[in-house]
Specification:
Layout (H helix, E strand, L loop, with lengths): L2 H9 L3 H26 L6 H18 L6 H16 L6 H20 L5 H14 L3 H15 L5 H26 L1 H19 L4 H19 L16 H7 L2 H27 L10 H26 L10 H32 L3 H26 L3 H19 L4 H11 L2 H4 L7 H7 L4 H8 L5 H23 L6 H6 L15 H11 L2
Helix pairs in contact: 1-7, 2-3, 2-10, 3-4, 3-5, 4-5, 5-6, 5-10, 8-9, 12-14, 13-14, 13-15, 14-15, 15-16, 17-20, 20-21
Length: 519
């Protein structure tokens, strides 16, 4: 970050030019603070989140000018705008996080320019995250140092010197007059009462803290520069001798022979029990077998990928050995089978124990690991560099997450769970109504369908109660103009069961819900 460089350049300009440099961002910051207070403080999050983000994106683009109106920068702006527009449909967590990442990326392109290196982007994002909240203070300090260098007098210190003695003695005389004159004393009492009433109207600490945080980060989005450019070409191969010394070609071949043998045992067991349907040992179910292996196998594949990246670095001696390359092809193929097996285990576990947000996240992560292994294999075959591998994996992850952010995952979870629960099929697990209620009103269509399929009156009554509480939560959101979204408006048109039309909201649950959906 270059606080002093910017301010030093501005210090050499006339003071009016410096004032204009900071005037527009300052006015925009105050406007966005007021708008954030109006939109978000103790209010439900709805379309206002997308509107706020789009206005902020427009301010960044207009201030940046040409750098954001051509080439890849325009693609980043368009993708960010699309994510923010989707908040009018429903502001999901992934959508909001990617939208914030898009705003930060647009700011970094405006300040530092475009680069195709994912490593540089990671450093820029880290710089923005760690130092963005300090940028306003850093620029203020640099501006103050620049003024001191020009020997400009401190206005506050000058006022203090000129008025300290007159004001101090004036207060002493006023105290004597108040003790001697009841009219002056009454004036002072009224003035004190006015001040106490004014202080009582000061906003709460949480509200002021929100103003400060919004102002600081809006300033960073409007003016941040990380100062991080492209990495120098000469520094790239510095670690080559160390990796070659630690992982000689003979050592790598021996490792690959052992690893392939171990992986072959695991692959054979999965083919025999998981895919072949062989009978498991006494006391073990397929759900237990599936659950125990899903995540450890994924960690094993990640460790294997790291080993390949280190030992098959572009230009290393191992990378040129035909034997080593054949063994690593076999090992990567086994790793792919391992991750696919872990995914199948996860599917079996979901069939027995239902679908959750974390299990969807695990499935996405497994898909990204499979893509990463395929890219590693491509890198070795095509003799690409590790930088190419990092770039293509970063793009893959962003594309996948971007696509997933437009999926109604909570509605998908509810639909899957109600259609595979014990109440419908007579097998599996009972429907977890508390979990579905915690997901929010997006589960209403699935619960309404479930209520029409149940034969057990007591279970149907529980579902109707859940529908009533979620419907009340939806009405609370839509009653406030800030909480409106397209999805919530569509959900409000659902034809609810007659038994669930009466509100059944417990006070404790209502308080918890309001705290969860308000900022």
């Amino acid at each position: 970050m270059d606080f002093e460089g910017d301010s030093a350049a501005e210090a050499g300009q006339p003071s009016s030019r410096t004032a204009k440099t900071y005037l527009v961002p300052a006015v925009l910051c105050m406007a966005f603070v007021v708008l954030a207070d109006r939109f978000f403080y103790r209010q439900p999050l709805g379309w206002t989140l997308g509107c706020y983000g789009l206005l902020l994106l427009a301010a960044i683009v207009i201030r940046a000018g040409r750098p954001l109106r051509r080439g890849p920068a325009l693609l980043v702006v368009a993708a960010s705008a699309l994510l923010l527009l989707w908040c009018f449909e429903e502001p999901g967590l992934l959508t909001v996080l990617l939208g914030l990442l898009g705003l930060a990326s647009v700011t970094l392109i405006a300040g530092d320019g475009w680069t195709a290196s994912a490593l540089v982007w990671f450093r820029r994002w880290a710089s923005f995250l760690m130092a963005g909240w300090l940028y306003l203070a850093g620029e203020a300090l640099a501006c103050r140092q620049a003024r001191q260098a020009q020997d400009q007098p401190r206005a506050l210190a000058r006022v203090f010197r000129l008025w300290f003695l007159p004001i101090g003695l004036g207060l002493v005389f006023l105290a004597f007059f108040a003790s001697a004159n009841p009219i002056i004393s009454d004036w002072l009492v009224r003035a004190w009462q006015f001040l106490t009433d004014l202080i009582a109207r000061i906003p709460s600490f949480g509200r002021i803290l929100m103003w400060v945080l919004v102002g600081v980060w809006v300033w960073a989005l409007l003016r941040f520069r990380s100062g991080i450019g492209l990495p120098s070409q000469s520094a790239a191969p510095a670690s080559a001798p160390i990796s070659d010394a630690l992982f000689s070609p003979g050592l790598v071949v021996r490792c690959l022979l052992l690893f392939n043998a171990l992986f072959a045992v695991q692959t054979a067991l999965d083919l025999f029990y998981l895919w072949g349907g062989a009978k498991l040992p006494e006391g073990m179910t397929y759900a237990q077998y599936a659950h125990r292996g899903a995540y450890p196998l994924l960690a094993t594949a990640l460790l294997a990928a790291l080993f390949v990246l280190v030992t098959f670095r572009h230009g290393s001696r191992t990378n040129g050995m035909a034997t080593a390359r054949g063994l690593v092809y076999l090992w990567i193929a086994q790793n792919l089978l391992l991750v696919i097996s872990a995914g199948w285990r996860l599917c079996l576990y979901i069939e027995v124990f239902s679908l959750t947000r974390w299990r969807i996240a695990a499935a996405i992560w497994m898909f990204l690991v499979v893509c990463g292994l395929v890219w590693i294999l491509t890198r070795i075959v095509a003799r690409r560099t590790n930088l190419w591998l990092v770039n293509v994996n970063a793009v893959t992850a962003l594309v996948v997450l971007f696509a997933v952010s437009f999926v109604d995952s909570d509605g998908l979870i509810a639909s899957f769970n109600v259609r595979h629960c014990e109440e419908i099929h007579g097998s599996g697990r009972p429907i977890d109504l508390a979990y579905l209620e915690g997901l929010g009103p997006e589960t209403l269509p699935a619960l309404v369908w479930l209520s029409g399929q149940l034969k057990d009156s007591s279970r149907a009554s529980e579902v109707h109660g859940t529908i009533a509480r979620l419907s009340q939560e939806l009405d609370d959101d839509l009653r406030n103009w800030r909480g409106w979204t397209f999805r919530r408006a569509r959900l409000a048109q659902l034809e609810l069961p007659v038994e669930s039309l009466q509100p059944q909201v417990h006070p404790a649950q209502n308080r918890e819900r309001q705290g969860r959906r308000a900022l």
